[in-house]
């Protein structure tokens, strides 16, 4: 029983861009005489740009949300352009699902300026939903519901992969079957959510098991 679609978060789930975001945040805060710790950066994983910008402003960055977004997006886009930092097993899973005819969506809080070049380079996503095209970002379910709507599928028949607390909340609230990926943050998902520390164990057959209603814990298999 294949899923109606697979919905992928980007940062931290498919590609290891979290260090890029962290470095960009540190550079911006320190440029204005502030301090931004590793713990501060980890707390921002999965946050919308509005939330991240507000935290940076509170640390002394005297820029508007738009200016902060431009600075962070430019830095991360340049880093990704230098080479896609795939998470282990991610590209293989995308290609296998594509070969099996399963529609796929990229559902990310990142803006299109970062996500679109990545999606274009990969060429395996049927739709892309970014943080700047939704009214309510993660943890609201709107991004995942929007992706299912664009694909024309029932969200409850989809499988979503997420690595952040806000993204996990968004995916669960949407009604999708969800896999929590413990990459940079150890998540504490609710009952019924599968878990892994890597995408390596997730071939088409394993994803189909999640779509069929199984709750898997593959952290030891990753």
Automatic annotation (TrEMBL):
Whose protein is this, by species? Cellulomonas phragmiteti
Pfam families to which the protein is assigned, alphabetical: Hydrolase
Name of the protein this chain belongs to: Haloacid dehalogenase
Q: Which residues form a coiled coil?
A: none
Q: Which domain of life is it from?
A: Bacteria
Could you tell me which CDD domains the record lists for this protein?
HAD_BPGM-like (cd07505)
